[in-house]
Amino acid sequence: MKSKDSYTTRPRHRRVRRRFDSVITPCGDGLATEWLATGASQYRGDRINQGSRGRKVLRTATDGDVDIIRVLRNQEPNREVSINAHEISVDEHAGWWKKASADPTRRVLIYERDGVTAGVVNFFDLDFEAKTGAWGFFLDAEGLAERGETLPAWIEVMKDATGYAFDELGLDELHGEVLEHNTVVRQMNRRFRFVEGEPETRSADGREITVFPISLHKDNRRKPKGQA
After folding, report:
1. Hey, is 107 helix, strand or coil?
2. Does the chain have fewer CB atoms within 10 Å around its N or its C terminus?
């Protein structure tokens, strides 16, 4: 199940497409580390479509979202923590979207805050018989930082995306990847009860990187407030 598709990360447990689905966050180390030190349990938020500061939505991407997806993916903070760090060209992106939008084993979702596109969530290598899949996401690093919304957006998209995987897609296990040096995201993943596997060294875009596979079983996830 390999692919030369250009945008994702992939779980180590099995071969999946890698080129656009980076498990990343553009959150600055200082802010995120400070929050993580206080404990995730102090955050009390509703689901994305019921946020206290306005409407939050996780919806299916359409042809009208193609340009903004590329813009966000090419933001420097996102490329720095992605496995493939090069800038995605218009042609490369168009080819990816043509395949992704027609692939039944994929879902591309747009995360909106107050009607503004704030991130992209990718599910790929979905196996509905085995009830497994892989995922990744990236946020509008620049826009959220300007509005002071990076941290709540990061938490919300992880909560809602994992909920979508288990409650909407019916998965039992969700996989992903994170770069070794992306320590803040690795901490956040642990807060959401993702488990790291054995690291793997790869070459990508002319650099050597160490990648940790991560996984989360539905029985181990942090349950939304109010659920048993």
Report:
1. strand
2. C
